Amino acid sequence: MKIALINENSQGAKNAMICNSLKKVVEPMGFEVFNYGMYTAEDACQLTYVQIGILAAVLLNSKAADYVITGCGTGEGTMLACNSFPGVICGHVEDALDAYTFAQINDGNAIAIPFAKGFGWGGDLNLEYIFEKLFVEESGQGYPRERAVPEQRNKKILDQVKAVTYRPLTEILKELDQELVKGALSGEKFQEYFFANCQDEEIAAAVKEILGL
Known about the structure:
Blueprint: E1 2-5, H1 15-26, E2 32-35, H2 49-61, E3 67-72, H3 76-82, E4 90-92, H4 96-106, E5 110-114, H5 123-134, H6 148-165, H7 169-175, H8 178-184, H9 190-197, H10 201-211
Parallel strand pairs: 1-2, 1-3, 3-5, 4-5
């Protein structure tokens, strides 16, 4: 699994700590972590939570990433932005129980964590517990297990609804403010990671056009 980490501008200073906690948990599982920044609070590329939604959608829809770990001060803005796009099911996760139930019941592909709210002593441990429960077993198996069938049915219904209510991502990218989109795709490592892992030629072409490549 390819896991993308994305930090919003107000929480850029925590990137290294978040990345270390994530890698500590998931690399022994055989997963890869791609850190898309922000790497520091002073990065030239300053990502807003709206731009995180754009970046997450590009990564997930192109299969450059299989999962996105992100967040902002409260996690709410990032969750809303991510869920504004097709191909993204993002849960708001504050603790290990949130992580486990979201993975097993909702079977999403992104989480938004509140990196400022209640984030004091032991914050790194809380992140490790979140990541452990998020990826402890295959997602979508249901919780409790006797509820698996209706929960899996509801997830399929949600996927069908999203397929109808959302337009193709390439159309959306072309109609958004191009400077907003370009800013979302201008991180220091974006081109290196994205083009090495992208599996959708149409999205890759749209990205190149936006970035003037």
